[in-house]
Write a structure and sequence with these properties.
Blueprint: H1 3-20, H2 28-39, H3 46-58, H4 60-70, H5 81-96, H6 102-116, H7 121-138
Helix pairs in contact: 1-2, 1-3, 1-5, 2-3, 3-5, 4-5, 5-6, 5-7, 6-7
Length: 144
């Protein structure tokens, strides 16, 4: 598993706990440190995980707004916590992180969803991020 993929997984796990516990962000660094120790001992590139977590928190409302807009059949509260936070990371990378190519952001989110989500999570994440990609493309905001 690549460092970036593992970093995304650790960010997703941390955001899952944050979301599950009522989105209290006063201990996110501690949650990330615990997850790294528990699930990725010896991993020494936590900076990217933290970068993703900070970005999702910073743009949380706008990210959730995009998810609500494009997951019209699913109120955001009814999307599983795993899928919701995978989407948040994917939307953050797709729209706000200028260093991640758009297609990489989508592909990584799909892979994390296939690994940790339910049977249809990969398709769901692909559909939502694909629709957001089309909107960004039409607005000339796609990063290659």
């Amino acid at each position: 598993m690549s460092n970036r993929h593992l970093s995304r997984t650790m960010a997703m796990q941390t955001l899952y706990q944050w979301d599950f516990n009522g989105q209290k962000d006063n201990n996110l660094k501690d949650l990330l440190a615990y997850n790294l120790q528990e699930f990725a001992p010896g991993f020494n590139d936590e900076n990217f995980s933290w970068h993703l977590i900070e970005g999702v928190i910073k743009y949380h409302e706008e990210i959730d707004g995009l998810i609500k807009k494009y997951a019209t059949e699913w109120p955001i509260e009814q999307i599983t916590i795993i899928d919701r936070n995978i989407l948040r990371i994917g939307v953050y990378e797709l729209k706000f992180d200028q260093d991640i190519p758009s297609k990489v952001a989508i592909n990584e989110a799909i892979e994390v969803a296939k690994t940790f989500g339910g049977e249809s999570s990969g398709k769901f994440v692909n559909g939502v991020l694909g629709a957001i990609y089309k909107e960004l493309e039409a607005a000339g905001q796609i990063k290659e």
